[in-house]
Sequence to fold (290 residues):
Amino acid sequence: MSAQPILVCGAGMMGHGIAQVFAAAGHPVTLYEPELARAEAGRARIAGNLERAVAKGRLSGEERDAQLARIRVRADLVRAARGAALVVEAVFEEEAVKRTLLADLDRLAPSDAVLASNTSSISITRLAAAVSPERRSRVVGMHFFSPVPVMPLVELVRGAETSDGTEAAVRAWAAAIGKQVIASRDRPGFIVNRILMPYLAEAMRAYEEGLGTAEDIDAGARLGLNHPMGPLELADFIGLDVCLHVMDVLHEGFGAPHMAPPPVLRQLVDAGRLGQKTGRGFHEYPRQGR
Fold:
């Protein structure tokens, strides 16, 4: 695939990683945040990732410099959207926030640009309703997994009006950045979170009931199930606020008791204990010996 201009909206944990993998594949990338300092912080995190890759011998200094040079930052969405072939929104997992951004992008991005959402649970059909009828065939779910430069999967989600051409374009972009695609229907949680969140919720209920300590529950999954990370530490890594939101979406969509967020999760989020990003969740961070 030839180099095409990519716009990534959101420079946080997901957004900066998405920008990094597109730049590594040779695409010029614009990283947008409404506050320039946040966009610059995202680019700085990419620079740190690349520097570590050089230190480990995985990347040359010339490759590092070339990749970083392909990434520019913007706080002006009008300028950021100009000329983009693909826009990936990776803003906070809240429908109203995403719909507002997509409506703005519909006005500002080229008419043939694909608008992809990195949402992990929100209906693509509902998000596409925020744009003009003419654009809806070019709205799609492109769900990456964290950390984006490491995780090999992209979950492709078609909305009710997503076209075959849009799906083909997303598959081509994913292949160009070395990702494998799985396709999901537009259902709550899609494929991965439909499977993952009930598993995390059950581990949280076990903890809530005093079945075992957080350390023992996680060790049980790591050593007994051969999982690379225990369920409670995985929830902390994802962000407990994100887990709560996705579980709420699943419970609302299916009404199944096993998909409801456990009270302990809501209590931790209410207390501001969101996991690794705040230093406390089910565990405290940094963790001794982990």
Remarks:
- The mean pLDDT is 96.
